[in-house]
Design goal:
The complex is a heterodimer of chains A (624) and B (659). Chain A has a domain at 590-624. Chain A is 66% helix and 1% strand. Chain A is built from 21 helices and two strands. Chain A has helices spanning 5-24, 32-63, 128-148, 153-172, 176-185, 187-197, 203-231, 244-263, 268-291, 300-307, 310-335, 337-365, 369-390, 393-424, 435-438, 440-453, 460-473, 484-507, 528-546, 549-574, 618-623; strands at residues 99-102, 116-118. A two-stranded antiparallel ribbon of chain A has the order 1-2. In chain A, helix 3 runs antiparallel to helix 11 and helix 16 (440-453) runs antiparallel to helix 18 (484-507). The termini of chain A are close together. Chain B has helices spanning 3-25, 35-56, 87-110, 117-136, 140-158, 165-195, 202-211, 216-233, 242-245, 251-260, 265-272, 274-277, 281-302, 308-328, 335-366, 384-398, 404-421, 427-456, 465-468, 482-502, 508-513, 517-520, 539-560, 572-579, 584-628, 636-658; strands at residues 64-65, 69-74, 77-81, 84-85. Chain B has 659 residues and is mostly helical. The interface between A and B is large, with 61 and 51 residues.
Chain lengths: 624, 659
């Protein structure tokens, strides 16, 4: 498609800038926080340019209709603005030529070249807004830490940038190993941030627990990733690949062939593939379940969130928690779709649903506001996982949107706690009361954030929650009886109001009660820095709640890709032929007559073509 | 965009603009004049709403739908900003804006000098905006948005005196109890979405369901889930408990939100969804029973309450029950008639209940914030205007013949009579409900006049607090300023006249509401007899209900004319039961609230256990390590010994295989 060489450089910079800053900022000493703010703002501007460029490209793609033909199932992700793309070779699919590491010694068959681990980054509809979130949230984090981090600020901000680099890199990666590297990279800065700058006495313990727990899970994920690569060589050449789009096509192709055999009366191949997928699913999910986290693997979260300094808690909740859900979206759903259909909602979904209620109860019983929001995060993310595994357009769009929304509103709530921490060094609920009269400005802003978190219409979470709920109502996954999960999900909207408003009642209502302030003078209402910080977050919540369609439109094309993968997996699990179903009949073509470049009607068992021609719109073909 | 649509949008935008203006300037300029934006916008909106009412009858199809603007859409879910204007929404709009104007004027006097003056008017403006949006919305999700919006305003206004713990608790309770109902509401919407051709636009959804009648069981489930939302918002059994507590808010709030407008949103919802409910007789009889039971229950509780505002609150719950009774007959009888009966009662109730609350507010204003009828007596000399207006409202509520409440209650009773004579499968149920409604009418008249006599008759008695009141500093207790009494007089005129003018002889109200297209199109299941649009006045019912009403008033007069609460010995246990609200709140606390809190506590404890479990798993490697650590004892001879032994075992093994 259109090539924006500049944007490619920018995409690369989105990862490189924080990486370089991670090295440079520690050298700045006392100036570190100002330098960090400048760097973070620069990063945000870069992201803004990328968003501008990408929304246009992605909207064009969303408007295109996928042409129905034999290999409709083989839909890969379409990364745009891939740095290192040589162009032309693969039609409109962008590939990178930057190989990090060539495993020439491990060909799948003798005589074939080995797989390459590539530095394969790109933007698509699924990661664009998450990158934006990662780019944006670092600024509130810096502002929250502005006064509170006095010990070695340079190192602190350096680790922050490394964390950001890891998160952005994981969001952008289209090579499974590269994804894994970035995914694990985030652990190191998080470990030091919690362990060294933590606020509680148990910070070292919390950091170690967080590190080991998530590492244990994600090592299993690595096994899963390698397993997927090894079991899905290119159907014709037998070449192994780490490139996510290629892997998706390979998986779809193998599954498609097995499905055809099963339809013809020989289910053994399909059954074998389903067994393989089951074990790969277990391995892949191990890491993501810990990272999300899904009950009962959440126990690292309360201590990590509680012990970390508030800025780091913001980053953990807003960004790192999204990595788990994003991993499910990026790896689990496309690479082991059949298992995701078979076990996603019934098993993981049940755990998530249980976790929603469980975490809500824990949130209610917590006495520390930090814990209330931490548990509420577990509860909300359970809902998000339900939406993901509904594996249809409503659920997927809702989940991707909810990742952004939840990151924003939960991060913002933690930022609001930073206000109290700075003044009183405590977030113990029982020690506060009647703050609405004491700090009207702060109470107003925080109250809107609370409303966003409990899904008040007009604010951001409502939209994504409605979409995920619709996804659960439209879930056609076999093995899901009735609407039990949807009922639990709806209940979670009630329960969030239950614990959040109890907190509001305790802290903002009732007669005034405040603990010993840090300074001798009476604590002021929101300062200018805090007003900018909270005000921006509040207005973003409002903007996303009123105009979410801008985001949804850009992710439409990639959600469609995933939903086709999901539908074909659904057909395989149910043992029926796959029929492509679009949301609306395709609009009439501009030029009548047989589309150029599109093969004629083919049977389902038709040959599998190379990656080149497929997914290519005939209209685009004409342009070229 | 057609003219009526832009008119409706202006009505919608005006209160929002007022809210923004009040909120953004509350600090400086508008501190003393914060009421003007609301009053002006409401007054203009009222005029426009009446213009709109005039235009509705000219619509070719009876309604106008604005072109949809996408809010969000993914897959099969499409949610639009779209509004519809028909007789139903125009009626509601006119009623809301008119009552709001009156109450805004009253509040400017009542709230004067309060430190949250601007906050009060800002939130009130948001409320009027949300309420107008609610009745205009033509999309279920959009409706939910405004629905939650009014709930939020209710929360903020109940918790207006946020420093008072009881107000803070009441606010949370109001929000949570209604939210519980809303959970069902949302599920119902998505169930309808799934079976109604993936539509969320009301009109499209209803059309689809009319054309493709869905499975009866699913439809009933969906209807009952929708009804959950209405039960929460309109304070019906079992979720009515929040409304009496909501009286912690300022009195104008009780009048506007918790009597005249917001609590009727549930009634409006069911009237709007009549095409669905008419298809499901099972859902209908449930609605009717819930309505009937609530009416009786709340009337019973109201008997012995001592807080004037709470008496009125229970009375609101009870009257809303009446409306649901009428709505529950839709399907058994012509939906137009059932909906007209309910909406007419909603309409008249808005007048007399707002009037009663504002009069109570006026009493409270004079009494320095005391509202318990045990502490004051015989106020009719001190508060002449308030006395008369309260009497008008009380008479209308009690159903004194020829007043508004009489006519609208009569329509409801008639709809029940017709339903019990129809060939619906539940005629016996409707007949029982009719008897229940008569009895409730008697109770209503009794408790209303109990409150009236206790407040205004008997020997004069004024609580201490009244003396300290700002206005009372000069000449003791006196009547409220005219900015407060004027709205009272206007509403009193409405309470007396609006019924007789609009319905019994002219049929203006029913004819107008009958033009609502969604009601006319309803196809009822099987061959339920749908009687003609014309209904004639039923003398038997009118006479019976008059006898009950006057009987209740008479009994109250006999018992309380002296302004003293003296009970016959036999009634004491009954009154104790009523005074304790039938122990419903206590039962809820013991059965639901406390167990939930205990469960939450247990979950938190269990979470610690879960953490310990994960630590245990993590400790296993260390444990194994400790167990085998002695092997690494640092003695070279020891290592050599083991090496030799290992080598020996290995070699013997190798040789055995190769041999």
């Amino acid at each position: 498609m259109s090539t924006f060489p500049v944007v490619r450089v920018l995409v690369l910079l989105l990862v490189l800038l924080p990486l370089i800053s991670a090295v440079l900022v520690p050298l700045c000493g006392r100036l570190a926080r100002r330098v960090s703010l400048v760097i973070a703002s620069t990063h945000l501007v870069l992201t803004g340019v990328v968003i501008l460029a990408a929304t246009e490209t992605l909207s064009i793609r969303a408007a295109e209709e996928i042409r129905i033909r034999g290999d409709i199932e083989a839909q890969p992700f379409h990364p745009e603005f891939v740095p290192g793309d040589t162009g032309g070779r693969h039609g409109n699919e962008q590939r990178t030529s930057w190989t990090l590491f060539s495993l020439s010694a491990v060909p799948a068959k003798p005589g074939t070249p080995g797989p390459n681990i590539q530095f394969y980054l790109g933007i698509d509809g699924l990661n664009l807004w998450l990158v934006a979130l990662a780019s944006f949230m670092i600024i509130p984090v810096i502002l929250v830490s502005w006064e509170s981090i006095t010990e070695k600020p340079g190192a602190f901000y350096g680790w922050l940038f490394l964390l950001q680099a890891g998160v952005v890199g994981a969001f952008l990666a289209f090579d499974v190993i590269l994804f894994y590297i970035f995914f694990e990279l985030t652990l190191i800065p998080a470990f030091f941030l919690i362990g060294r700058w933590g606020v509680g006495s148990g910070r070292r313990d919390a950091a170690r627990k967080f590190f080991l727990y998530t590492l244990a899970g994600s090592l299993l994920t690595l096994i899963g990733v390698i397993g997927v690569v090894v079991t899905n060589p290119h159907p014709a050449t037998g070449q192994l690949t780490f490139s996510l789009p290629d892997l998706m096509v390979n998986v779809q192709h193998h599954m498609h062939n097995a499905h055809q055999k099963a339809l013809a009366g020989d289910p053994s191949d399909l059954a074998a593939r389903h067994t393989t997928q089951f074990w790969l699913f277990v391995a892949l999910m191990a890491g993501f379940m810990v990272k999300v986290p899904i009950w009962p693997f959440h126990t690292w979260l309360p201590s990590a969130y509680g012990e970390a300094p508030i800025g780091v808690t913001m980053l953990l909740s807003a960004l790192m928690a999204k990595l788990g859900a994003f991993g499910i979206l990026r790896l689990v759903l496309p690479l082991v779709p059949d298992a995701a259909i078979q076990y996603g909602l019934p098993v993981i979904g049940s755990l998530a649903a249980f976790g929603i209620v469980y975490a809500a109860l824990c949130a209610f019983a917590s006495k520390d506001m930090k814990m209330v929001i931490a548990y509420s995060s577990v509860s909300h993310l359970g809902f998000l996982v339900l939406g993901l595994f509904a594996f249809n357009r409503e659920g997927l769009s809702g989940s991707v949107l909810h990742m952004v929304n939840h990151g924003l509103s939960t991060g913002a709530l933690f930022a609001a706690l930073g206000f109290l921490l700075e003044r009183y060094r405590t977030t113990e609920m029982n020690r506060f009361g009647g703050l609405m009269g004491r700090f009207p400005g702060f109470a107003f802003l925080t109250f809107i954030l609370v409303l966003a978190s409990i899904g008040m219409p007009g604010l951001n979470n409502f939209v994504s929650e409605m979409m995920m709920l619709a996804g659960l109502f439209n879930a056609r996954n076999p093995g899901v009886q009735g609407l039990g999960l949807a009922v639990v999900a709806a209940l979670s909207i009630f329960m969030s109001a239950w614990y959040m408003l109890t907190m509001v009642q305790c802290v903002f209502f009732n007669p005034l009660k405040e603990p010993e302030p840090v300074t001798a003078v009476a604590a002021p209402d929101v300062t200018r820095r805090e007003f900018v910080l909270l005000g921006t977050l509040v207005s973003l919540c409002l903007a996303l709640g009123l105009f979410p369609q801008l985001l949804i439109n850009t992710m439409k094309a990639d959600v469609r890709v995933l939903s086709i993968v999901g539908d074909s997996a659904r057909a395989r699990v149910q043992g029926v032929p796959y029929v492509y179903e679009d949301e609306a009949p395709p609009p009439p073509l501009v030029s009548p007559g047989p589309p150029i470049g599109a093969p004629g009607p083919k049977g389902k068992g038709g040959g599998f073509k190379g990656k080149g021609g497929k997914g290519k719109n005939p209209l685009i073909g004409e342009e070229e | 965009m057609s003219e009526p649509i832009s008119l409706a949008l202006v009505i919608l935008v005006l209160p929002l603009a007022a809210a923004l203006l009040t909120a953004s300037w509350s600090g400086e300029i508008l501190k003393k004049a914060a009421h003007w934006p609301l009053i002006i916008s409401c007054a203009v909106s009222t005029v426009l709403a009446f213009l709109l009412v005039g235009q509705v009858t000219d619509f070719a199809t009876g309604r106008i739908i604005s072109s949809p603007v996408t809010w969000f859409a993914a897959g099969k879910l499409k949610v639009n900003f779209t509004i519809t204007i028909d007789a139903l929404s125009a009626t509601m709009l006119a009623m809301i804006t008119f009552v709001s104007t009156m109450i805004a004027v009253f509040s400017s006097g009542y709230m004067r000098g309060d430190k949250g003056y601007a906050r009060f008017f800002a939130v009130m403006s948001v409320f009027v905006f949300s309420m107008c949006g609610l009745v205009l919305a033509n999309n279920f999700i959009l409706l939910v948005a405004f629905w939650e919006g009014v709930g939020l305003c209710s929360y903020l206004l109940v918790g207006y005196y946020f420093e008072k713990p009881s107000a803070a608790a009441a606010a949370r309770k109001a929000f949570l109890v209604t939210r519980l109902g809303d959970t069902g509401f949302l599920l119902g919407i998505f169930l309808l979405w799934r079976m109604g051709g993936w539509h969320t636009d009301l009109t499209a959804l209803f059309d689809h369901i009319q054309k493709n009648p869905p499975d009866q069981g699913t439809l009933t489930t969906a209807c009952l889930l929708l009804f959950c939302g209405a039960v929460g918002k309109s304070a019906q059994f079992p979720l009515y408990v929040w409304l009496p507590d909501a009286m912690e808010g300022p009195t104008p709030v009780s009048a506007l939100i918790h009597a005249a407008t917001m609590v009727t949103a549930g009634v409006y919802l069911l009237a709007r969804c009549a095409p669905l409910f008419a298809l499901s007789p099972d859902a209908q009889i449930t609605v009717a029973w819930i309505g009937g039971l609530t009416a009786l229950l709340a009337a019973f509780i109201a008997l012995a309450q001592t807080d004037l505002k709470r008496i009125l609150a229970y009375s609101t719950v009870s009257q809303l029950g009446y409306m649901f009774l009428a709505l529950g007959t839709c399907g058994a009888i012509s939906p137009t008639f059932a909906v007209t009966a309910a909406m007419f009662h909603l309409f008249t109730h808005a007048f007399f209940k707002a009037l009663l609350f504002l009069s109570a507010g006026s009493v409270m204003h004079a009494m320095g914030g005391v509202i318990d009828v045990r502490y004051f007596r015989g106020l009719r000399k001190r508060l002449p205007v308030t006395h008369i207006t309260f009497l008008c409202g009380a008479a209308a509520l009690a159903g004194v013949p020829l007043l508004s409440g009489f006519w609208s209650k009569d329509l409801i009773l008639e709809s029940l009579t017709e339903a019990s004579e129809s060939n619906s499968p539940y005629t016996a149920g409707y007949f029982t409900l009719l008897l229940l409604a008569f009895f409730t009418a008697f109770l209503t008249a009794f408790y209303t006049f109990r409150a009236y006599f206790l407040t205004f008759w008997g020997e004069e008695k004024i609580p201490e607090e009244a003396g300290h009141h700002l206005n009372g500093a000069k000449g003791g207790v006196h009547e409220s300023p005219s900015v407060m009494t004027l709205p009272l007089i206007v509403l009193a005129a409405g309470a007396l006249l609006v019924g007789i003018v609009l319905e019994p002889f002219t049929h203006w109200f029913s004819d107008f509401l009958g033009t609502t297209p969604s009601l006319g199109q309803v196809r009822t299941p099987s061959a339920v007899s749908v009687k003609g649009e014309e209904h004639h006045f039923n003398w038997t019912i009118a006479i019976i209900s008059s006898v009950f009403a006057l009987g209740g008033i008479g009994l109250a007069a006999v018992m309380y004319r002296k302004g003293e609460e003296k009970l016959p010995a036999g009634l004491e246990p009954v009154f104790t039961l009523s005074r304790n609200k039938l122990y419903v709140d206590d039962i809820y606390y013991a059965v639901l609230v406390k167990p939930a809190e205990v469960l939450a506590f247990l979950a938190r404890v269990f979470d610690g256990f879960l953490d310990a479990l994960s630590r245990l798993v993590a400790a296993i490697p260390r444990f194994i390590g400790q167990w085998i650590r002695p092997i690494q004892n640092g003695l070279v001879q020891f290592y050599a010994l083991w090496m030799a032994m290992g080598l020996a075992v290995f070699l013997s093994f190798v040789f055995r295989i190769t041999r």
